[in-house]
Predict the structure.
Amino acid sequence: MSHALPSISAASSVPKDADLIVVGLAEGSSGPYLVGVPDDLEALWAKRHATPLLAAARSVGATSKPGTCVVLPGTPGVVVTGLGGVDVTPEQGRRAAGNAVRAAAAVAGERTLKVALSLEAIEPEVVRAVAEGALLGAYGYAKHTAKEASRPLGSLVVVTKARDARTPIAEASVVASAVCQARDWVNTPPNQLYPETFADAARALAREKRLDIEVLDEKALARGGYGGLLGVGGGSQRPPRLVKLSYAPRGATLHLALVGKGITFDTGGLNLKPADGMITMKCDMAGAAAVIAAIGAIAELKLPVKVTAWAALAENMPSGSAYRPSDVLTLYGGTTVENVNSDAEGRLVMADALARACEDSPQLVVDVATLTGAAVVALGERVAAVMASDDETADDVLDAAQSSGESFWHLPIPEEMRTGLSSEVADLSSSGKARWGGALTAAAFLREFVTDGVRWAHLDIAGPAWNSGGAYDYVPKGGTGSAVRTLVALGRNLASRPR
């Protein structure tokens, strides 16, 4: 599990007991200049060090470039974080705060620090982003060890002259906590998080957030005809689950359905992955983590939109009971699918969940999955793909992503991709005949299980769901919580529309 996130609050001035003060470095027409430095700090620094704070910061490498950060030791210490240009966007504030808090944690040692973020955030969107970035940057997944985890950060204070900063900071805390919960689930070792225990975790969240929950075990899945989940999960001693979480506030007229891929570990099944391709496959449930965490945040924020989240949970293992290439599976609703590759398992469990989700007649369905390596080839490791039933639906997702600071790119679903899914022995083939455009083919397959007339978007987060490199901005190494912020922002945008 993660280190406990620090508390966060707002103040109109820097607290006297702050251990570190975060200020910004922006680029103006006359060169770089500091943002948010209290007058008494500037005077104190000049008196103690006989040099201006700006000169001292630049002498140790501080720049206005977003993503850069230096720490100047002292009492209090000063963290100088790059803000970019004069007009600071919410995402620039989010990145600057995340970098600063990570830098603060790195120098804490045995201490537990109080950090004040003085970045002249005034607009509610920027205040919320700074608070969000700071909390996300404070995240750390605790090692599985008998030693007690240290807490380098005890409290965060956003210094702002905003009239009411409590609301955006409270909202930021809810969203950041949801992202960190998703990160925790993704980071949990697969011998501890598997379909049954993941469903138990969803039950715990449902109790906390006062959500309705239904969990279908393997017997209920068999009675219901969920052939995708049963086929993919059949090779494991840990049977599959389908989790349904429901949030239905009084007066809500719009129904949003969220569907998440929850492959708690993916060996590739009988189409076994190479060893180096398997080590991060505890991440293959990141889509389910995102939708469960997101509905919890939407409920806590009391957004007036009905949301149902579906998590399709299975473990894909090779064994004598594993499903085979060339098997024909009957998925929920009766569609038969010829399995081509048992390492293309995600689309099969998602098809079951999508078909079931559409039976409740939602106005919009959004599925989230670490679905294809092809999406990573196309867009890299930091950009997720969005494919949709229509451009308006894609734009709704992209608008939500932009406001939340997540990177998505709209890809098409060409009609010829459906042609490649033809089968001589079943209604559909699980994979296309051609090597190219694998992400588009997977989306075309999923589209077959969405009811005609229902708006739908597919988010392939295979790249950004897991960060195998070093931490950057407010993104840690390992599980990132990808798509949670976008889904919450989408819920907020839908709730604000005229009814």
The longest helix spans residues 166-187. DSSP finds 15 helices and 20 strands in the chain. The first strand starts at residue 7 and ends at 11. The domain at 7-160 is CATH 3.40.220.10 (Leucine Aminopeptidase, subunit E; domain 1).
